[in-house]
Amino acid sequence: MPITYQQTADKEIHDQVRRKHSVNIHELKRLNFEEYYFFGENVQALGFSPLGLAGFLGTIVALFNEVAKIEGDLSVSVFNLVMASREHAAYACPFGLGVKFYTSFTDGTCVISANFDSPVIDDGREKLYKFALPQSIEATWKNHRILAEKLCAEGKQRIEHLSFTDYLRLAQREDNYMLRIKNSTIAVI
């Protein structure tokens, strides 16, 4: 079964996420991000999902590094926070590995930046770009803004209306892209 996402209004979960990621949340607030949505990411049957063994292992790791709970049907819900910069029409998601920034454009272009080691995406055909480098949140945010501004100078327009649906579309687009790469690599072997 696929990974599903759902907003959560559970104040106890909100407080747990705030405590777990307090340092990164504080840094993002200093950079003028505000709390936007808390959500749960649900993976069926302890990670037995389209992500295969990597999904299973990732789910087990998440149980210890994230705010997570095992549901009665053995699915696992991992809870996170999306933060937003309305000034820059960008999202930030702090989680166990670090922080990812997302900006989307009206022509379908998506830019993602991570402040930790992660696979890079540079696909002009898909209009999907991801840059990842272990560095401070502030340095990653600065580099992300520079790239977004460069794209704006080339005539692209940011999607100014931020929404949970838009954030999910961007995150799922990255996940689906990485899953296609993983599956095509397995097919070649």
Category from helices, strands and their pairing: alpha+beta
Strand segment tally: 9
Order of helices and strands: EHHEHEEEEEEEHH
Q: How many strands, which pairing sense, and closed or not: the largest β-sheet?
A: 9 strands, mixed
What is the molecular shape? globular
Rg over C-alpha atoms, rounded to the nearest angstrom: 16 Å
Kindly, what is the distance between the CA atoms of the first and last residues, rounded to a whole number of angstroms? 25 Å
Mean pLDDT equals: 87
| Low-confidence parts | 47-55
Q: Share of helix among residues?
A: 25-40%
User: Helical element count?
Assistant: 5
Hey, roughly how much beta strand do the residues contain?
25-35%
Supply the number of structural domains: 1
Sequence-ordered SSE layout with sheet pairings:
Elements: E1 4-7, H1 11-20, H2 22-30, E2 34-43, H3 52-65, E3 67-70, E4 76-85, E5 90-95, E6 98-104, E7 110-114, E8 121-123, E9 128-132, H4 137-153, H5 164-188
Parallel strand pairs: 7-9
Antiparallel strand pairs: 1-2, 2-4, 3-4, 4-5, 5-6, 6-7, 8-9
